[in-house]
Prior knowledge:
Order of helices and strands: HEHEHEHEHEHEHHEHEH
Number of helices: 10
Largest sheet: 6 strands, parallel
Number of strands: 8
Radius of gyration: 17 Å
CATH architecture: Alpha-Beta Barrel
Shape: globular
Distance between the termini: 34 Å
Strand content: 5-15%
Structural class: alpha/beta
Helix content: 25-40%
CATH class: Alpha Beta
Amino acid sequence: MPNLTRRQAIRATGAASLGLVLPGCDGQPDRPGRAPNTGDDTGRAGARSAAEPAAKTGITQSVARWCYADIPLPSFCASVADIGLTAMDLLAVDEWAVAHDHGLVVSCGDVGAGTIEDGLNEPRNHPTIIGAFEEHIPRAAREDVPNVICFFGNRRGMDDVPAIDNSIRCLRECAPIAEAEGVTILVEVLNSKPGGHVDYIGDHMSYALEIVRAVESPRVRILYDVFHMQIMEGDIISTLTDAAEWIGHYHTGGVPGRAEIDDTQELYYPAIVRAIGDTGFSGFMAHEFIPRSGDPLGSLAQAVELCANP
């Protein structure tokens, strides 16, 4: 199958929303809340109880659209709702209505606030990032999209100190926009190793935490990607427990290979989900693994059940 980055897949799903079948995703992760959602929007039509906030955890499950880019968006939305999920992640602005038509919350919207490569660390990207948030965060608030995403950017030889300072300055300008509308800006941590997002500067939680703590806004939080952080630094449960106050969203994925979150990988998601629940987190955890089983929707249903009953 042709290689698709996450960013390409997100853009390509605009065509899928018109019913066009698109190429599938490959295994490479070189792709691409309001405060953490309380689950109040999970009772939309067409959703079953399996993926509603579990009594044990309070977490609402979601799924990243880009991993299923070969399924037209309307069909995928219908299948996701039938599985019992109530939310979908990483939809572009012009796709939000399709998800809503199927009773799904857009748990994290992509509003074009920079890219993985061109992010917060570089001042020349700031007008694009701020402009995208100024334009689309009010719409996100109107359409009950609780979170929007941005990125730290590629290093390109930049030292941490100026990169951190630049990121803080940009997010301090963005934070009032988010605060006024009750929408949360999420900044994602990603792995920078070969096969991942080589040269990405926000590849450790210590880097992300220094920035988000300095911004000091309840509407700026970290998107903690379990797959990426297992590759970079491990110690998942201790890290997410210690950083719980600053985490607004989670992504899943099996290690190695971003495959299913089952017993073929080194992570044990029932324990991870319980640990997230123990922190009091009540937002979204989006599945962002690439199905390998030959039954993509079956793999998704199994992951939902695993995390609903950890």
